[in-house]
Amino acid sequence: MNRRLFLSAGAALPLSAQAPTARIAVIGTGNRGRSLLTTLARMPGVDIRALCDTDPSALDRAATVAVNHKPELYSRGENDYQRLLSRDDLDAVVIASPWKWHATMAIDAMKAGKIAASEVPIAQTLEECWQLIDTHERTRVPCMMLENWSFRRDNLAVLNMIRKGLLGDMVHCHCAHSHDCIDHWFFDPKGNDRWPAEFLIKRNCDQYPTHALGPVLSWMDINRGDSFATITSNATSQRGINAYFARQFGPDHPNAKKIFAQGDIVTSLIKTQQGRTVVVNYDMQLPRPYDNRWMVQGTLGLYDEDKSAVYLTGKSPKYHEWEPFAPYQAAHDHKWWTTMTADPNAGHGGTDLLELSKFIEAVRLKTPMPLDLYDGVTMSSVIALSGRSIAMGGVPVPFPDFTRGQWKSRKPYFGV
Questions:
Q1: pLDDT reading at 27 higher than 80
Q2: Predicted confidence band at 12 (pLDDT cuts at 50, 70, 90)?
Q3: What is the pLDDT of residues 51-77, one digit of tens each?
């Protein structure tokens, strides 16, 4: 084979034949960590070198998932992840610990020269957001927040439609995380507190904004041509948690009377530097089916996820009537999905597989992360900013500019 033919053939080889193996560790092996680990352990070109958790039983279950990789286990207390980070045979760490550890572990990973991928949200406070940015800019080590809803098939098809101009100029979005999590996430089925319960007691804010905002940032070119300017947030009173415990366990259960700081519904209105608006809802404490309620509206039409429908002026067959979204998704399906090998066992309908595949590809090829840290901290900062606005009676609160003015010149990158 001559040189030209050799290079041509090499370009067609799978990634596993072109790039080195990604040497990975997973910190946090509870339910979410094991789910991510299950996907990672089956991916080509991935070597699971180490696992870490404070719960030995969770760690043992995770080791069974990655048994073919023979990972070393770390479980000597809550700071044993530092010993893991001191290894010289790791390229990256995936962080799936409880919320309060995400920023600290990602910062420590970057300081140790390890690429970090953290579950959502990547930070709880504005101080953590800035510490993440400062560490990344100082060390130049990549860091990514694993916001999987940015990678959903429908959301990426909508992104293609927007970039092709079908919706015109973007004007407004609505998004939500509507998911009744009282009986399995904040508390276990027997009514005992799980680790997220402490946040319901201590603060009143949008506790979990990133699943709502993930696709919105790319739809509206936030941090690349536009930027969040202010946020105004208000919360309802808290009735849902007490009502659940009284209904499920009787009125004498302690949580049926406990005072929780967190309101049942938080509504935030974000205004951008370019005059666009985004409404974000937190809704995780009242009975309801899962729903994200995405709606994106432009000068030529809109997409509504709840209706699974679009209306495009001049294109939709009937004036002011919705038409199904499914044909548009098929016509504008993103290349990431059309070229991905399906895995029926991958989490969230294959979305986790796509997200982790793009992350591993970036680790192996030393290319930019598929979702950058500036977007991760922008989404996560809504936690602290919404809490501040609520505490001040719903007044507008300014957004920090984590890009330090670079949003004016940065170009769209996600899914390009």
A1: yes
A2: very low
A3: 999 999 999 999 999 999 999 999 999
pLDDT at 287 over 70: yes
Give the C-alpha separation, 202 to 403, whole Å: 30
Give residue 216's pLDDT. Answer: 98
Q: Per residue, what are the HEC states of the chain?
A: CCHHHHHHHHHCCCHHHHCCCEEEEEECCCHHHHHHHHHHHCCCCEEEEEEECCCHHHHHHHHHHCHHHCCEEECCCCCCHHHHHCCCCCCEEEECCCHHHHHHHHHHHHHCCCEEEECCCCCCCHHHHHHHHHHHHHHCCCEEECCHHHHCHHHHHHHHHHHCCCCCCEEEEEEEEECCCHHHHHECCCCCECCCHHHHHHCCCCCCCHHHHHHHHHHCCECCCECEEEEEEEECCCCHHHHHHHHHHCCCCHHHCCCCCCCCEEEEEEEECCCCEEEEEEECCCCCCCECCCEEEECCEEEECCCCEEEECCCCCCCCCCEECHHHHHHCCCHHHHCCCCCCCCHHHHHHHHHHHHHHHHHHHCCCCCCCHHHHHHHHHHHHHHHHHHHCCCCCEECCCCCCCHHHCCCCCCCC
Q: What's the pLDDT tens digit per position in 304-337?
A: 999 999 999 999 999 999 999 999 999 999 999 9
5 compared with 101, residue with greater pLDDT: 101
Q: Kindly indicate whether the domain formed by 3-147 is annotated with CATH number 3.40.50.2300.
A: no
Residue ranges, CATH 3.40.50.720, the chain: 3-147
Mean confidence (pLDDT) of the chain: 94
Domain 150-340+356-408 has CATH 3.30.360.10: yes
| CATH 3.30.360.10 domain locations along the chain | 150-340+356-408
pLDDT: is 346 or 333 the higher one? Answer: 333
